[in-house]
UniProtKB/TrEMBL annotation:
UniProt GO MF annotations: ATP binding
Domain of life of the native organism: Bacteria
Signal peptide: none
Entry-linked InterPro entries: AAA+_ATPase (IPR003593), ABC_transporter-like_ATP-bd (IPR003439), ABC_transporter-like_CS (IPR017871), ABC_transporter_ATP-bind (IPR050166), P-loop_NTPase (IPR027417)
Keywords of the record: ATP-binding, Nucleotide-binding, Transport
Protein name per its UniProtKB record: ABC transporter ATP-binding protein
Length: 283
């Protein structure tokens, strides 16, 4: 059996609002992720997906509970965990190559070697020809490819992705799904991927963690047993999308009932959304 890589035990996270009342972003979250696993965190807005990702990244500290990576407690950010965000976060004044090399130079890798490794990664994400371009000369999809190359060039064990493709058009997103799937299979990285998009989650993941709101936490976990590389028209994936959608509808209905109280008059069908579309942010 594969090795345990990330262990979350009864993780609880509270934030203080400006009026000093607490928001429970995560309540009693327990999850074990194996080395090399691709896990998606899926759920409506505010269910704590980014908070959970940030805790694993070491950017946020859990209020209580335990987080272990390779059996060691996490005290802050580390080279073993790199985050890719929705915005590429590239330095606009540096060339694509310099952006990808940057993390290596910080780690004192000699310039020639850093350049070689960065160029290798740019080839892998099909941007070898754009090494000397500036970020503003690239499309959104190309920028995200650079962000992925910049993350993987430092060879982290864990890649944390917070809605990395959310701002891209559907075609570009599908191409990047195929590329990320290939890179993940080639490198064996452990990936945690935050998304609102059910189709994206089923196409990419080994397991999908469906999250709930108020308080944020885990509602259900769905293993995805379709062969890779995947095709979103695979009947296994379509069936799974529908199961997830049904649970999400229940969750969204619960939130609406709480929010609207006696004004609640929503029919379940009004909530039915196309799984290829983003969901959850308008509840
Ligand atoms: N720094 C913060 N201070 C106060 N409250 C916060 C902070 N960060 C998150 N929260 C609250 O914690 C809850 C979970 O937020 P989080 O951003 O993790 O959700 P999410 O599922 O990633 O949402 P979205 O899909 O909209 O990005 C929300 O109620 C949010 O308002």
């Amino acid at each position: 059996m594969a090795e345990e890589h990330i262990i979350l035990q009864n993780v609880h996270k509270e934030f203080q609002r400006k009026d000093h009342t607490p928001t429970i972003a995560l309540d009693d979250v327990s999850l074990t992720i194996k080395k090399g696993e691709f896990i998606s965190l899926l759920g409506p807005s505010g269910c704590g997906k980014s908070t959970l990702l940030n805790i694993v990244a070491g950017l946020e500290k859990e209020t209580s509970g335990k987080l272990l990576v390779n059996d060691k407690p996490i005290k802050g950010p580390g080279n073993d965990r790199i985050v890719v965000f929705q915005e590429s976060g590239l330095f606009p004044w540096l060339s694509v190559l310099d952006n990808v090399m940057y993390g290596l130079l910080i780690k004192k890798v000699p310039k020639q070697e850093a350049q070689k490794r960065a160029l290798d990664w740019l080839q892998k994400v099909h941007l070898g020809k754009f090494a000397h371009a500036l970020p503003h000369e690239l499309s959104g999809g190309m920028k995200q490819r650079v962000a992925i190359a910049r993350a993987l060039v430092t060879d982290p064990e864990i890649l944390l992705m917070d809605e990395p493709f959310a701002a891209l058009d559907e075609q570009t997103r599908m191409v990047l799904h195929m590329e990320l799937d290939k890179l993940w299979r080639e490198t064996g990285k452990t990936i945690i991927f935050v998304t609102h998009n059910i189709r994206e989650a089923v196409v990419l993941s080994d397991r999908i963690v469906l999250m709930k709101t108020r308080p944020g936490g885990i509602k259900s976990i769905f293993p995805v047993q379709a062969a890779r590389p995947r095709n979103s028209s695979d009947s296994i994936l379509i069936h799974l999308e529908n199961r997830i959608l049904t649970e999400l509808e229940q969750e969204m209905e619960k939130v609406l009932k709480e929010e609207l109280g006696s004004d609640y008059a929503l029919k379940t069908n009004d909530l039915r959304v196309d799984p290829s579309n983003n969901m959850g942010s308008d509840i």
